[in-house]
Amino acid sequence: MSAILQSIVLTVAVLLWLQVVSADYTASCQQESLDGYYLVATCSMINKTQQQTAISLDNCIANYGGNLACAADGDFSGSCDVSSCILFQEGEYMQCSCGNGLGNQTSSVVNLGQQILASCPSAVSLICLLIRILHLQ
Fold first, then answer.
1. What whole-number distance in Å separates Cα of residue 47 and Cα of residue 70?
2. Average pLDDT of the chain to the nearest whole number
């Protein structure tokens, strides 16, 4: 398959996939909390029932010199104090104390709402957007 055709197929697959997910997990999930480096939330299913689900944020978030960012297999907990991490603005953001690579800790914030999606329509699970797109390639 040519590179152009592969690119078109990937683009169509991503667009179709984006139609079956909520744009932001906080739109369909509540009771967000952190359990170590896991994000736990109760999400609405299409049949109106609620289901608790979790995702390892180590699969989605990295620490780059004291700055949290979305990254596949980022393993942020290796250099951030997960006991310092808090969620705010209804789980949309997470703030942690992370090593900056110079021997100091710095406070960093990442927008989880832009990185984590709640899949629909049947089983609900939290998905890291970046990892999902990478697996489609």
1. 31
2. 76
**99 against 9, higher pLDDT:** 99
E strands along the chain, which residues?
29-35, 38-44, 50-56, 61-64, 67-70, 80-88, 93-99, 105-111, 116-118, 126-128
Q: Which residue has the higher pLDDT, 136 or 51?
A: 51
Q: 65 Cβ partners below 8 Å, 6+ apart?
A: 100, 101
- As a whole number of angstroms, the distance between CA 134 and CA 80 comes to 25
Closest among 95, 51, 81 to 41, alpha carbons compared: 51
Which CATH superfamily is 3-136 part of?
Cyanovirin-N (2.30.60.10)
For residues 77 and 71, is the Cβ–Cβ distance under 8 A?
no
Please list the alpha-helical segments (H only) found in 2-128: 3-18
Q: Where are the domains of the chain?
A: 3-136
